[in-house]
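Fold Annotation — chain and its backbone
Encoding — discrete vocabulary of local shapes
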Amino acid sequence: MSVRRGTDPSVPALLLMNGIGASLEVLQPFVDALDPRRSVVRFDVPGVGGSPRPVVPYNLPTFTPVVAGMLTRIGFDEPVDVLGLSWGGGLAQHFAVQHRRRCRRLVLAATATGTLMVPAHPRVLSRMLTPRRHRDPEYARRIAGEIYGGTVRGDPARAARALHAATRLGPRRGYYYQLAASTGWSSLPFLRLIRQPTLIVAGDDDPIIPVVNARVMARLLPDARLHLYRGGHLALVTEAHDLAPVIEEFLDA
């Protein structure tokens, strides 16, 4: 877990929920791009980064109470803003419903509704079935453009640097448990229950989450705003200075 204490206690803290297999350090460029007045909380899911491996498998609905308990233990009793990236977007959607009093505003970045969505190409999905891209920098460079799109198509090493520069690897079992946690899951049945103001941030060249999914979510969420950017799946990290102001403007509205 990592907490960056902001300089202004009146600004709601921002809770970040990361993508699959990525430790909290991967989001450092985005944290650095945020205004220092805002507190930022990050954590590693079980078996990823610095967190111990899970004893038994978990799923999204059973993990959100753990996250809420973590916030209480570190002294964040007031409502927080929540940002979920990719896999973390599914967890963020559940958190917003199950702990609505703890979630003030919601940001969903490069994410979708789970099983019931417009899927990626089967070749892209097959790359996501193992944690190899997180463990092998050369492999990450080789497939980066194909699975992440955006600016890393022309600079695949950029994705490898983002994933490997400071990340900590947990056991392989942690990745598979995280993958299993969202297997068969969909937020479509409860999207209407997410009442918090929501910003959907999506790239027009995201092979993992086709942009049509963001348009569907924007239509179904009761209070949603859609921001489309020119880029791919990792833009929140690789183009953090472009997206951070958009997100902060929404959070401060």
